[in-house]
Specification:
mainly alpha
């Protein structure tokens, strides 16, 4: 099996498409909002929390969230998109939620980080299992296997 085939293979059930679409839609929405509301959610927020070069990093992160959100919804290059969003969510948790834990305690942290950890867990699942049977990855893999037989 080639590297590309391993990246597109899946052990996830077909129902994973539902979770994949929800996770992808949240990333897509958050990415769009970084451009629609740059002061509150884009470069202004990045500057406020101390992320370097906010005028560059916020649009970059927003574009990654949009692209990866679309890829997750489609089930195309799912593992790669999930990996990029795992990095994204890890940075978000470390830069915003861990300081909250240290400053305000566990319960405010638990409340504010619930979506971040849910998105991280969703992406970890897709990194491990792949997109599922209802995906472009699965279609490409199935088509490539038929071509080689």
């Amino acid at each position: 099996m080639t590297f590309a085939q391993r990246m597109m293979s899946t052990s996830a059930p077909r129902a994973a498409a539902f979770v994949r679409c929800i996770v992808g839609a949240v990333f897509l929405s958050e990415g769009i909002q970084k451009f629609l509301f740059p002061v509150e959610l884009g470069a202004g927020r990045f500057a406020h929390i101390g992320i370097p070069w906010p005028e560059v990093s916020a649009p970059f992160v927003g574009a990654c969230e949009i692209a990866c959100g679309v890829l997750l919804i489609a089930g195309l290059l799912t593992r790669a998109a999930a990996l990029v969003m795992i990095i994204n969510m890890t940075v978000a948790i470390c830069s915003t939620k861990i300081p909250m834990l240290l400053a305000k305690g566990f319960w405010p942290f638990a409340h504010e980080s619930r979506v971040d950890f849910s998105m991280l867990c969703g992406c970890l699942m897709f990194l491990i299992t792949g997109a599922g049977g209802v995906s472009i990855d699965s279609l490409i893999l199935h088509t490539s296997r038929q071509d080689h037989t």
